[in-house]
Amino acid sequence: MRTVIKVDRVIDGSGRDAFGPAAVVVEDNLITLVREGPMGLEQDTRIVDLPGCTLMPGLMDAHIHVTGITSRGPVPPAPDLAYRTLASVQSALRHGVTTIRDVGSYLGVPVALRRAIARKQVIGPRILACGKLIAMSGGHAYQLGMQADGVDEVVKAVREQFRDGADFIKTVTTHRAALPEFTQPELDALVAEAHRLGRKVACHAGIEPGIGMAVRAGVDSIEHCWIPSDETLAAIKARGTAIVPTLAITGFGYSYPERPQASAERTAAMLYENVDQAEAIKSYFEGTFQRLPYVMRFAKENGLLVGAGTDAPITELPYHSVIYEVELLAKFGFDAMEAICAATSNNARILGLDRVVGKIEPGLAADVIAVRGDPLQDVRALRDVCFVMRDGQVIPDPEPTQALRQV
Questions:
Q1: CATH superfamily of domain region 2-57+358-394
Q2: What secondary structure letter does DSSP report for 398?
Q3: 394 in helix, strand or coil?
Q4: Could you give the CA distance from residue 255 to residue 267 in angstroms, rounded to a whole number?
Q5: Which one of 176, 268, 373, 387 is at 20 to 30 Å from 210 when CA atoms are compared?
Q6: Is the Cβ–Cβ distance between 97 and 319 less than 8 Å?
Q7: What share of the chain is helix, strand, coil (3-state, %, to 5)?
Q8: Is the peptide bond between 313 and the residue preceding it cis, with omega within 30 degrees of 0?
Q9: Which residues lie below 8 Å from residue 45, measured CB to CB, with a gap of 6+?
Q10: pLDDT in tens, 334-351
Q11: DSSP string for 107-143
């Protein structure tokens, strides 16, 4: 089937200026032509005419937990969890999120769901899954993965995830307290083995010394990266390490640049549940509030590779919160085009999909969305999605966003 999508303007994801009116031709699942101005139409062509709209690459969330995260009560049985997860990712797709990277979930559901979507047994976004994240014994989020201690166990854990179909490796180090949750030799071995097997490594690290250790080990992306030292920021720049700052979850703790009452309430609740770590948690929240604006300025001014990821559904973020993430990037000083690229072409590079998706150009898969208005003039236009195409297939009933906070 040949489809021609006609719009007022195209943001192609490359970072260059929008252009239009324009037409984009899709044949089967691939983009075959992008043309500014009118074009002749052949027989057997489906026309999608979207006046007043902007066509752009589908949004990508580089940091999400598709099964959700529970700290209260048991994890649901696998069949229940699978159906709930399917509903969640399909909702994200209808909101314009065509690719998601799952960074840790329960019971192998993301890998199974990825396969079902690839086989076209169900409709859903493109999924990259880490399988089980790898943590030290008792380390952060160990409930979502497997525990490994020592170089030999860490290497074996990487091989097991490779065996079980992981698209990449997710590991975890320093969380809220300044205590590294892996030694440097363990992190070095984990990254080396993952890269030997052709898998990228995403590392949860919000505070030092874990961020610096992860960068030295050669991880591909630092997840969160809220309180890095100046030395570590320089190393990130020198090595070209990507960062995924997950602003959306911090945005639910405070609204930059003001800090609302919600921050105090959230902190109080967390202190109650983690009374033995009270001082570390207080320091962590205060450090994030003080340091993160500087980190984002450094990232923008020094051209760091910044991806958009949300950590949904933590703090009750909806599964399409990457829209909110883009708005927060703009609020932290990125221009609208830079923020949009973070959720499209930058994420494609971080996920290793830049030869597949992330831009509107011939030869790439037709993962595209349209929004009413011009998001370069007002980035909140991303909330008003009116057309979604995933791998050349038009997704019915696109959903404009109603559930995000005003930023």
A1: Urease, subunit C, domain 1 (2.30.40.10)
A2: -
A3: strand
A4: 14
A5: 268
A6: yes
A7: 35, 25, 40
A8: yes
A9: 2, 3, 4
A10: 999 999 999 999 999 999
A11: TTHHHHHHHHHHTTSS---EEEE-SSEEE-TT-TTGG
Please give the structure tokens belonging to residue 92: 């994200």
Within its chain, how far is the Cα of 153 from the centroid? Answer: 28
DSSP secondary structure letter of residue 277: G
The structural domains of the chain, with segments of one domain joined by +, span 2-57+358-394, 59-351
Which residues neighbour 384 within 8 Å (Cβ) at sequence distance 6 or greater? 371, 372, 373, 400, 401
**What is the C-alpha radius of gyration for the chain, rounded to an integer number of angstroms?**
21
Query: Is the domain 59-351 a CATH 3.40.50.2000 member?
Result: no
The closest alpha carbon to 320, from 262, 263, 382, 377, belongs to 382
SS3 292: helix
Cis peptide before 38 (omega within 30 of 0): no
> Six-digit token pair at 329?
């990037």
Residue 29, CB half-sphere, CA atoms under 13 Å: how many? 7
What are 33-76's pLDDT values in tens digits? 999 987 777 777 899 999 999 999 999 999 999 998 866 678 88
Domains 2-57+358-394 and 59-351 share a fold: no
Alpha carbons within 13 A on the beta-carbon side of 319: 27
pLDDT tens per residue across span 196-232: 999 999 999 999 999 999 999 999 999 999 999 999 9
